[in-house]
Write a structure and sequence with these properties.
Bound molecules: iron/sulfur cluster
Number of strands: 32
Largest sheet: 7 strands, mixed
Strand content: 15-25%
Radius of gyration: 27 Å
Distance between the termini: 42 Å
Shape: globular
Length: 866
């Protein structure tokens, strides 16, 4: 039965990953999973479930700013238009650019693409989706002639063999992973294979883990294709490769034989891949090596089978649909086909439509550093952090004469370099559509008022276009009008498809575009009211004929994928990726204490056998040819020998020395232009700190309290600053920064270099500062819990200064973010007899919320003595 708040809730969509979960939201209540949404059927992961805690206005950009001063919208839009005018006059169309984001709604994306390619006359619009799935797009286009994901989420559940390649689905697409595990629980004969150098949370519950050498995926799938050919499947000689697969992948022959036999003998196979595959200098070949195996066996377009790329971002797919990548046109039209360019030019009434591809992300920032970009408009993304070789990107941002940023957040690392800041609506405020990884278009609806002077991105673009003389082509009254226009663009190709299938024309006779599967013609005439009420809708949606469902691609090409050894094989290899409870540069998730508890500090994970003189818990420098980062070291046997792993989330705002992209190679895939974020050669050395410490207090003091500093919300109204430095310990300076006067309790041991201090007000703990000569410091979790006490008693005061727990279990990291259950509590439950995930849930509540921690519970169960 539905409660009252569910009936009044707004149906919208999660703004995080490409699963695209439906959400029921109210202005002042927690969000809930939408039981009616096909992607999640009511489920949410830890990030989605915490959305209600992220809608506050803290850190928001609320007013336009020009050169550091508040400005009116008119003044800021005039300055933006003038910046573009100047850059066009000085450099021509190739000297202006937009760098946009998979966070944009499809309508915003469409407006940005039309503005850039249609009217600025340049292909220079690229998206941070370039970092996410450009290799999958390129692979699809090579194999299918169009960017098509043939399968549906239901196929993942109906597969008898599911292969996850370069995808820690349990952390990065948790609801999809939960759906798969639920399907496997119902059909235990379903097999799951994980192909990943790391033993990730996704390996829990899998039947086989292939811990292949980083970068060797093409060899694995080329070897599989060869096995399929020998088993009788038709594989053209031009595609076949004779490779020493065990030597190249590092996998033993028995494991390879099992994998190859399972694939060969199982009809219903889905191979799912994501960023671990795409973020590679051979990412496109990896995608095609996977697709080749499905095409050779005909396992595509039927229930429970097919290659399946999942996107990282909530609307990466929408960006692909509108062509907001430098080498694509709107509506899956092709910039290489003159007839398609002509059709779009006529439709948009855009005589200056770009006729050649623009600069891809890494190329764009190189051009900017070389002084070739006069105006750059960044939308809803943070390239100063998220792009590789970030020192180069920051040099480029400083060099651009007019840098515009439209965003929700005021203080991002990129905002520091922008002359013009334009406040955009955020999640919960804006209105439009997103498309998830299975081609389902869902509405994101606003349920909160627009804060300050924030405006929709499409409105901002239209206003600038009007100032540049193109107002008639951008005169949309609302997002619904943009969606209708976007849907109509997809029909530019469909016209000819219909003519061909009706026999009115023969192929090659018509100069109009070749047919595309992507077709939203059936939505091109939606009324505003129908758009407002649009339910989740899977494309294609033609005016006539079958809609949605799985697709059998009309074009299917096997593509040669010659194996290339990754550069720098043999060095210590840095891989980067995501954490379970964080999203991108943490502008949203980094504000939620319970999401920070799973990983409160930036940590480098390394196999214990590679540690040499590095000490667990100490700080380690990760140094490459491009830069360096400093992170806390965790030894983890799940990391393969010769590699290390670092999360990509930390920024200048939270841990300036721990921005891992400062060290990441700018190498890219030659076809997709996607950066190689999984294979940077590095050296690891100890960070020479003379002191370490932490400061817990009731207000954030920034992330520059020492040579190394990491800031995190530790509990509601409590902030944790982890600090280290190479000069003398700055006890007095930290006391001054705190601004609470002399400490209530203090202990100073000159001989050992230890300083401990606590500030109490009316018996409540206000702050605690601990400094010491090394990284071994008192546990933080218990100290943090003291901030919730109404009064600190004398026993606790002594324990506080001693940094020792008075009694109780030793502190340990939080595993279940929903219920704040620590690993120690879960271990205690297992020791007391809980022998499966359900029993742990009954004893501790862990795993009974969003379920994102279930793989970690399974891992703890596996470690328990029989
Ligand atoms: Fe959002 Fe989690 Fe669903 Fe992804 S899996 S869309 S992050 S709730």
């Amino acid at each position: 039965m539905m409660d009252g708040s569910l009936l009044t809730a707004t149906r919208t969509t999660c703004p995080y990953c490409g699963v695209g979960c439906g959400i029921l939201a109210t202005p002042d209540g927690p969000v809930r999973g939408d039981p009616a949404h096909p992607a999640n059927q009511g489920r949410l992961c830890s990030k989605g479930a915490a959305l209600g805690e992220t809608t506050g206005l803290e850190g928001r950009l609320l007013h336009p700013m020009v050169n550091g001063k508040r400005a009116s919208w008119d003044a800021a839009l005039d300055a933006t238009a003038e910046g573009f005018r100047r850059a066009l006059a000085e450099h021509g169309p190739d000297g202006v650019a937009l760098y946009v984001s998979g966070q944009l709604l499809t309508e915003d994306y469409y407006a940005a693409n039309k503005f850039t390619k249609g009217f600025l006359g340049t292909g220079n619009i690229d998206s941070n989706s370039r970092l996410c799935m450009a290799s999958a797009v390129a692979g699809h286009r090579r194999a299918f002639g169009e960017d098509l994901v043939p399968g549906t989420y239901e196929d993942l559940e109906r597969a008898d063999l599911l292969i996850l390649v370069g995808s820690n689905l349990a952390w990065c697409h948790p609801v999809l992973h939960q759906r798969i595990l639920a399907a496997k629980a119902l059909r235990p004969m379903m097999r799951i294979v994980v192909v990943d150098p790391r033993r990730t949370a996704s390996c829990e519950g899998a039947d086989l883990h292939l811990a292949l050498r980083p970068g060797s995926d093409v060899a694995l799938f080329a070897g599989l294709l060869e096995h399929l050919a020998r088993a009788g499947f038709a594989v053209p000689d031009a595609i076949r490769q004779s490779l020493d697969v065990p030597a190249l992948t590092g996998l033993d022959t028995a494991q390879l034989a099992i994998f190859q036999e399972w694939f060969t003998r199982t009809e219903r196979v889905v191979t799912l891949w994501s960023q671990g595959t795409n973020q590679s200098s051979s990412g496109t070949d990896k995608a095609n090596a996977i697709i080749n195996c499905h095409l050779a066996t005909g396992r595509i377009g039927r229930p429970g089978m097919g290659p399946f790329s999942v996107t990282g971002q909530p609307n990466a797919m929408g960006g692909r649909e509108v062509g907001a990548l430098a080498n694509m046109l709107a509506g899956h039209l092709d910039a290489d086909k003159p007839e398609e360019v002509s059709a779009l030019r006529a439709f948009w009434k855009a005589p200056n439509l770009a006729t050649k591809p623009g600069l891809k992300a890494v190329e764009l920032f190189r051009a900017a550093e070389a002084g070739r970009i006069g105006a750059l408009w960044v939308m809803a993304t943070n390239p100063a952090v998220s792009l590789p070789d970030s020192a180069q990107v920051r040099r480029a941002l400083r060099r651009i004469p007019t840098l515009i940023l439209s965003d929700c957040h005021a203080g991002s690392d990129t905002a520091e370099h922008a002359q013009i800041l334009l406040p955009a609506l955020g999640w919960g405020e804006k209105d439009g559509t997103v498309t998830n990884s299975e081609r389902v278009i869902s509405r994101q609806r606003g349920f909160l008022p627009a804060p300050g002077e924030a405006k929709p991105d499409w409105w901002i673009i239209a206003q600038v276009a009007r100032r540049l003389g193109w107002g008639a082509q951008f005169a949309w009254p609302n997002a619904a009008a943009i969606f209708r226009e976007h849907a109509a663009v997809t029909e530019l190709a469909r016209d000819r498809a219909d003519a061909l299938s009706s026999g009115r024309e023969s192929p090659g006779q018509d100069p109009r575009p070749a047919p595309r599967v992507f077709d939203l013609g059936g939505l091109a005439d939606l009324t505003d009211a129908e758009y407002a009420a649009l339910p989740p809708t899977q494309w294609p949606v033609p005016r006539r004929g079958a809609r949605g469902g799985r697709i059998t691609p009309p074009v299917q090409r096997l593509v040669p994928t010659p194996f290339r050894l990754p550069e720098h094989s043999g060095a210590m290899i840095l891989m980067t990726g995501r954490l379970r409870d964080q999203w991108h540069t943490m502008t949203r998730t980094g504000r939620v204490p319970r999401l920070m508890q799973h990983a409160p500090e930036p940590v480098l994970s390394l196999n214990p056998a590679d540690a040499a003189d590095l000490i667990e818990g100490a700080l380690v420098r990760v140094v490459s040819a491009w830069g360096e980062a400093v992170l806390r070291l965790a030894l983890d046997p799940a990391i393969p020998r010769g590699a290390c792993f670092a999360p990509m989330h930390w920024t200048d705002q939270l841990a300036p020395r721990a921005r891992i992209n400062a060290a990441v190679t700018p190498a890219t895939d030659p076809i997709s232009g996607q950066p190689e974020l999984k294979h940077t050669p590095v050296t690891l050395t100890p960070f020479a700190a003379r002191w370490h410490g932490f400061l817990l207090c009731r207000q954030p003091l920034g992330a520059r309290l020492g040579d190394w500093c990491a800031l995190a919300p530790a509990a509601p109204g409590v902030f944790r600053h982890e600090i280290a430095g190479s000069d003398a310990a700055p006890f007095e300076a930290l006391v001054e920064a705190l601004g609470e006067g002399a400490p209530t309790l203090a202990l100073r041991a000159e001989a050992t270099g230890e300083h401990r201090a606590a500030w109490l007000r009316d018996g409540r703990l206000i702050a605690a500062l601990f400094l010491g000569p090394d990284h071994v410091l008192p546990p933080r979790e218990w100290l943090i819990s003291l901030f919730a006490e109404a009064r600190i008693g004398s026993a606790a005061r002594h324990a506080l200064l001693a940094g020792l727990l008075p009694d109780g279990p030793p502190p340990s990291p939080t595993l279940c973010a929903c219920h704040g259950v620590s690993a120690a509590t879960i271990r205690a439950a297992i020791a007391a007899g809980a022998d499966d995930v359900a029993a742990i849930g009954a004893a501790t509540c862990a795993g009974t919320g969003c379920g994102s921690c279930k793989p970690e519970l399974t891992a703890l169960l596996a470690l328990a003595p029989a």
